[in-house]
Design goal:
By secondary structure, this protein is mainly β. 0% of the residues lie in helices and 46% in strands. The protein has 2 domains: 4-281, 7 Propeller (Methylamine Dehydrogenase, Chain H), CATH 2.130.10; 290-363, Immunoglobulin-like.
Length: 364
């Protein structure tokens, strides 16, 4: 799963292989939408309750006019990967890809490519009004923050921080935040003229940053990282996620209620401002909890599932995603020898035709 977007009760999440999920009840259950593409979707944006856009690899752009019941493919004139989409109003929208900004002024019917003339690879775009916008990403050997004040007609480089940037968000016209590799969080209070480095307390990649209010904000990233600030970014505190998956996006309707989405179809929801998560859903919206014991272990573990597996595959991966152990599983309880693994943390994934269950182990 990748990006998420939602109101108080209705929300959407997009991900690999053309996956779009929708919830009508604030994330308690999710339904798969019929999309008509198998291309990976990386970002989405809704301009009203019915009209939304999603973009992804191989230049895919799809649009819905009926709140996700059906999606039509639009032509963007490119086969490049489209990383982020943002609409300032019902007509005007922007997509970033590489060093190019694609703009529409007719609700996606046609798109114009605007080269930035900056050697960069852009990951995220955000506008504070119809004319003023920001995009972030990377340049050779540094990050990149670029800005437009003329509705995307031209862009200038305003900062090149030390690390690649993944996300940009402005809670108001002047105050904005960016996040990225090595736990970097930067803040501006003057529309991007100056940027201050905030101490995040982590070296994980922070892939998404979101502020539901001026002082309350969240940043999420790799290895289950969720950070929260209540003082406008002066300090950041880890929030327990209960999982080790990589989070891609966060969206909050207020300071307490929000969702984060990530790998393996993970969707977490909180109603208590980032305390222990209310629930963890997989793509099937069906509980399939793994029991792993003893954990930690140095020799052998037992992995137990609540259902009898059918055509299921069990894999154990390191933090880089490399699969080190792969087994076909036909019984609810399986013993695995982990004595040859190096000491550290590993991911466990059980995949069947309809469900994905995940867990983690510690090799002592």
């Amino acid at each position: 799963m990748s990006r998420g977007s939602r109101t108080s009760n209705t929300g959407y999440a997009v991900g690999w292989a053309g996956t779009i999920l929708k919830t009508y009840n604030g994330g308690s259950t999710w339904a798969v939408q019929s999309v008509g593409t198998s291309k990976h979707l990386l970002s989405l944006c809704f301009t009203d309750a019915n009209t939304g856009y999603a973009v992804g690899n191989y230049g895919i752009i799809i649009k819905t006019n009926d709140a996700g019941l059906s999606w039509d493919t639009l032509s963007g004139g490119t086969t490049n990967t489209l990383n982020s989409v943002f609409f300032t109003n019902a007509s005007n929208g922007y997509i970033v890809s590489g060093a190019t900004i694609y703009k529409t002024i007719n609700s996606g019917a046609s798109w114009t490519a605007i080269p930035t003339d900056i050697t960069c690879a852009l990951n995220s775009v955000f506008f504070t009004d119809d004319n003023t916008g920001y995009a972030v990403g990377s340049m050779p050997y540094s990050g990149a923050i670029i800005k437009t004040i003329n509705a995307g007609a031209s862009w200038i480089l305003i900062s090149s921080p030390a690390y690649e940037l993944s996300s940009v968000f402005f809670p108001n016209q002047d105050t904005g935040y960016v996040s990225g590799l090595n736990g970097i969080i930067l803040k501006t209070v003057n529309g991007g003229t100056n940027w201050i480095t905030e101490s995040s307390g982590t070296n994980q990649q922070l892939k998404s940053i979101y502020f539901p209010s001026g002082n309350v904000g969240y940043a999420v990233g790799t290895v289950g990282t969720i950070l929260k600030t209540i003082n406008g970014g002066s300090t950041w505190t880890p929030s327990p996620s209960g999982t080790w998956v990589d989070f891609q996006s966060a969206y909050f309707t207020d300071g307490n209620t929000g969702s984060v989405v990530g790998s393996y179809g993970s969707i977490l929801k909180t109603t208590n401002g980032g305390g222990y998560p209310v629930e963890l859903n997989d793509l099937s919206s069906k509980s399939n909890t793994l029991k792993i014991y003893p954990n930690p272990s140095s020799t052998e573990i037992t992995i137990q599932t609540s259902e009898t597996p059918t055509k299921s595959q069990l894999s154990i991966s390191n933090l880089s995603g490399q699969e080190l152990i792969i087994r076909q599983i036909t019984q609810p309880k399986t013993q695995i020898d982990i004595s040859r693994l190096h000491r550290g943390v590993y991911f466990v994934r059980l995949t069947s035709d309809k469900t994905v269950a995940t867990g983690k182990i510690i090799r002592q």
